[in-house]
């Protein structure tokens, strides 16, 4: 039972971190909207978005999709 609780805590922590990541990404997007797009910034955004989507996919897999 303790392992299940640890797994649930880990999933909750990942969910919190993912939410924070999405929130920071939105703030960063708003701040950089008026800046000329640079390749490095675009690559960073794409990497963060892909990471966020992968985290979401992993959470759905672990939780069975009943999030």
Structural class: mainly alpha
Helix content: over 70%
* Overall outline: elongated
Major sheet size, sense and barrel closure: none
| Average predicted confidence as pLDDT | 78
**What is the terminal separation in angstroms?**
21 Å
Number of strands: 0
Low-confidence stretches: none
Q: What portion of residues belong to β-strands? A: under 5%
Whole-number tally of structural domains: 1
Query: Could you spell the SSE succession in H and E letters?
Result: HH
Which radius of gyration do the C-alpha atoms yield?
15 Å
Number of DSSP helical runs = 2
Protein name: Phage protein
Primary descriptors:
single chain, 67 residues, mainly alpha, Phage protein
Walk me through the structure.
This protein has one domain (1-63). The longest helix is centred in the N-terminal third of the chain and has 31 residues, at 2-32. The mean pLDDT is 78. Helix 1 packs antiparallel against helix 2. 84% of the residues lie in helices and 0% in strands. It has helices at 2-32, 39-63. With 67 residues, the chain is mainly alpha-helical.
Helix and strand topology:
Elements lengths: L1 H31 L6 H25 L4
Helix pairs in contact: 1-2
Short description:
This is Phage protein. With 67 residues, the chain is mainly alpha-helical.
């Amino acid at each position: 039972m303790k392992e299940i609780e640890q797994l649930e805590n880990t999933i909750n922590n990942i969910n919190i971190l993912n939410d924070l990541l999405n929130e920071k990404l939105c703030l960063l997007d708003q701040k950089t909207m008026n800046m000329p797009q640079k390749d490095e910034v675009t690559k960073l955004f794409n990497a963060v978005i892909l990471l966020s989507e992968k985290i979401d996919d992993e959470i759905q897999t672990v939780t069975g999709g009943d999030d």
